[in-house]
Amino acid sequence: MKNILCLLVLLASMSLTAQTKSELLKHFEGYYNQMKSQGDVQGVINAMTHLNVLAPNQQRLDTLAYIYASEGRNLEALNTIGIDNNATDSNINTEVKALALKALNQPKRALVFYEVLFQKEPNAYLAYEIADLKTQIQDIAGAKASVDYGLANVKADMKKAFYESQQPYEVSLKGALTYLKALIVFNMNQNDNIDQAIALLDEAITMDANFNLAKISKDALVTRKNEPKKN
User: Fold this and answer.
1) How far is residue 148's CA from residue 175's CA, in Å, rounded to a whole number?
2) Rounded distance, CA 137 to CA 210, Å?
3) Which residue in 3, 92, 145, 147 is a FRET match for 34, CA 20 to 30 A apart?
4) CATH of residue 134
5) How many structural domains is the chain composed of?
């Protein structure tokens, strides 16, 4: 009799737990939808975190990490999904790792994920990012190959945003790739290629008169060119 009573209590407890979990899931799904409709990003993050604790889901984790990265919370994004390169990773998972690691100034690690994305769907945007990262790690030959691909496949309506000035701005992706090409050419031979690099920067500025970074780079190269040569 005692065993039967214990069993009934256990079954009742399990039923209550299942019911409570179901009610909590319903509550946080409603909370998520409400926060989303209000544009409350932190509320969305809180709701998704609770939902994932209650019912772990990789797709939800990937989305949560993407929201963190979109908000500039890159460490939290990576803490959510890790930094391993897994064959089963979704595109959004890989993209978050690429973006977050680049933002955290980890070019070698970020490059791994940008190249995975490029292998899946090559395009001029990814070619630019790969060329930029390879320039940073001094893989000049690899950077040149990526820029060449980008310039061969860029379309007139493609844009690239820059944030180095107080006021963010956009230029054509072709202009941005031409700017990168100038840096690559200069790095290939900093003495003999300075005029060619300046000419490429002029080309980029002609395409986009507001290209502040290209102007800064050109001024730096012109100043270097005009420095008195040491005996």
Assistant:
1) 13
2) 28
3) 92
4) 1.25.40
5) 1
